[in-house]
Each structure stands twice: as structure tokens, then as C-alpha cells.
Amino acid sequence: YILLFLPTWEMRGIRLLLTALTASLALPSCQCFGPTPALTIRPSLRGAMPLGGLHRGAQALVARLPPSGARSSLVRPSDGTPPTVLLPTLTGGGGKGGGRVNGKGWNDGRGDDEGGGGDKFGLPDDVAAVLGGRALSKEMRDAVLAGRIGAGEVANFVKVQDSRFLKWIGGLSRPMMSRLVANDRFFVTLSIELMVGGITKMLAEVVERSKRGAFWKEIDFVASDMALELLGDFGLVFFLAPTAALLPPPSGLGKSVANLPGFFLQKGGFTPSQRAACLVYKALTFWCIGFATSAVGHSTTKALIEARGMPTDHMASVLENSIQWGNFLGVSSNLRYQLISSWEALLMPRLFKGSLALNAATTSVRLANSYSGGVQWLLWTRLIGIQ
After folding, report:
1. Distance of CA 88 to CAs 25, 61, 81, 104, 247, Å?
2. Of 161, 247, 304, 335, which sits 20 to 30 A from 261 (CA to CA)?
3. Buried b (16+ CB within 10 A) or exposed e, 319-345
4. How far is CA 240 from each of CA 185, 272, 275, 343, rounded to the nearest angstrom?
5. What is the phi-psi region of residue 69: left when phi exceeds 0, alpha when psi lies from -120 to 50, beta otherwise?
6. Looking at residue 173, what DSSP letter applies?
């Protein structure tokens, strides 16, 4: 009994210790007729015991053993072999019950919602193999048991938990965590997009403003342009990324939207109508992003110019510029980034092996896309007369 309190909870020997303890308590209550040969103890002990409920589990087991003078389960074979004492079955429980003794939980029904010792029991074998004894949050466990995510998403979740930085990033919001869980390269892709967009934008700012010797004089313009560039790049990658269904889908229109693919060629059993709806829905999403960022950016630019006492009559109005930038993101950027996401998900892993090659391919493609988008925007603004 004292040994149960020693700090050896994770040692497999504790299970043998508990087995021996229950066997010693059960044997005195066995009543045999005639000489009693050596008994064979056959406990059924499956899975690991929840750490917090081990003591209560032993008490519950002892309480359910037959009292002194009562008959226990004793099997006496007819072939003369030693009889067998069948002890109460100890099974690994799942969720809130933890381990179970003859149907009752080690923790008297009180489990650890944050992924205690018995949480992994009841999960599919492939998921349990991926976890390897690690804890799984209640939200993730419920999603697995409901069939919304599988072993691949759980493996990505484990990678996130192993990285302090990714764990912190994922903890900022559920949408961010759902994307990290759905795609183990999401954060790498997002970082590359921000790096490509930020560097090319800064080079353009330096070259163009340095021609007039005005880079440092107009550093506030540079800061405003850089902030809007990075926000736009973030939105284009974030809202096209596949998500893991960590929560049950909402009802009504929200459920229909949640069932759409992240991009129109994403793997999965999506119907042609869902893929077409994805193009339209993302176009509307990007239009809103473009309109909002342009409204803020163009207003800021005009305000900075007016603060210097310079006229802004030659500039397009905030409303017109914002509408056209929304149109550009909804059509050009939407189609280009949909194709890039499809390329990165379907073809790139087959053509390139290793993280270095994959990152180099992603960088090259997104660099070309950034240049192509810049050229298309200049042509578009001149065509409609706002440049």
C-alpha cells in the first residue's frame, strides 16, 4: 500500500505491483474443495493507468473483490492442471472515465479534460500510434472521435506542440491552429510569402524613392505601404489555406461555407459545385480584403501628402481606388493564388523531395507570382485610368 505513493508512476513495474496486490487480496476468499494445488493467477490488465486515479483505482478494485467467505471466480480444469483464479478485469478507459475496473472509472468518472493518462484510450489505433503516449487536448480528441480529423492532422498537432513558437502562434486563435493542424507547411508557406512580398516591396520603394532622393523624407509613406503589403499577403495565404474541422460545423449557410475546399483543386471528396463555389466565395473574400486595405492605405497616403501641404487633386478618390483594388484581388490575385496553392499541394511534393528543395520551389514560384501581380496591377490601373 505504501509503495503506491512512491514516485514511480510511469514505471511499468507499478502495474505488476498492483496485480500482485490484488492477487494477494483475492486468494484468501477463494474456497476450493480438497487439496489446493498451486494456483495460476491470470489478471486481465490492458492499457496504462491514469496517474491521478491509481490510488482510487486500487481502492475501487479492493472494494469490488468478494468479501471473506464468499466464492470468487475459480476455474478448475478437468484435465488435472492447476486451477485458475480469474481476477477482476482492468481495462483502459477513455475520456472522462479514465481507466475502468469492472465498468467503473479509476477516477470515479472524473477524468482529465486536458488529455490525462486515459484520454488516448478509445482513439483509433493509427491516432494512438502517432501520439505515442502524448496528451491530446479535449477539442482535438472530440474531433478525432467524431471523425472530423485523422492521424495526419494529429501528427501535425504533435509537431505544433513540440515547437514553442508554433504552439504560441497556434494559441493566438482557433483559425490559426486549424490551419497549422491541416497543413504542416502552412507556416513555412506563409513566412515565404511575407518574405517575398516584403523584400520585393521594399526594393521597389528604395529604388523608386531614391531616384528623387526622398526615401528617408518619405519614410512614413514607406512604412504605410509596407504594412499594407504584408497585410494583403497574409490575407491571400491565410484565407486560401485548408482548415481542420476542430469544431462541429455550424448550421445553415455557415455549414455550407465550412464544407467548401480551401482552394478549388484541394484534395478531397468535393463536388464540382463546391469547387466552383470556392472560387466565387474566395473572390468575394479577397474583394473585401482589397477594398478594406486600399481604403486604409489610400486614405493614409492622402493624409500624409496633405500634411506636407501638397495637393492631392491628381490622385484617384479613396472610394474609386478601393473598389478597383478589390476587383483586382478578387479576380487576378484570387486566380493566381488558387493556382499556386494547387501547385504546392498536388504537384510540388511529387517533383521535389526534402524541405530545402520544397522551400526553394515555393520561394521561386511566389517570387514570380509577385512580379506578375505587380505588372498586372500597373496595366490594370492604366487601363481604367486611375494611374
Report:
1. 12, 8, 22, 11, 38
2. 161
3. eebbbbbbbbbbebbbebbbebbbebb
4. 13, 18, 13, 13
5. left
6. -
Q: Residue 54 CB: number of other CB atoms within 10 A?
A: 21
Residue-wise pLDDT tens digits, 31-49: 433 444 444 444 433 333 3
Residue type, 305: I
**Shortest CA distance to 105 belongs to which of 122, 116, 123, 118?**
118
Distance CA 218, CA 160 (A): 41
Residues 6+ apart with CB under 8 A from 266: 242, 341, 342, 345
Gap between the Cα atoms of 222 and 199, Å rounded: 12
pLDDT band at 123 (very low <50, low <70, confident <90, very high): confident
Kindly state the cell numbers that stand for 164: 514553442
Are the beta carbons of 363 and 189 closer than 8 angstroms?
A: no
What residue ranges in the chain does DSSP mark as E strands? 40-42, 74-75, 84-86, 90-91, 100-101, 104-105
Strand, helix or coil at 212? coil
Indicate the helix (H) or strand (E) that contains 24.
Answer: helix 13-26
Provide the CA 204 distance to its chain's centre, in angstroms.
36
C-alpha cell at 15: 502495474
CB atoms within 10 A of CB 112: 19
How far is residue 247's CA from residue 83's CA, in Å, rounded to a whole number?
52
β pairing state of 40-42 and 74-75: unpaired
Whether 382 shows a pLDDT value over 50: the answer reads yes
Handedness of CA 262, 265, 266, 269 (dihedral sign): positive
CB 33 within 8 A of CB 71: no
The answer to whether the Cα torsion of 166, 167, 169, 175 is positive or negative is positive
Give the phi and the psi of residue 228 in degrees, each rounded to 5. -70, -35
Between the alpha carbon of residue 285 and those of residues 57, 228, 290, 334, the distances in Å are 54, 17, 9, 9
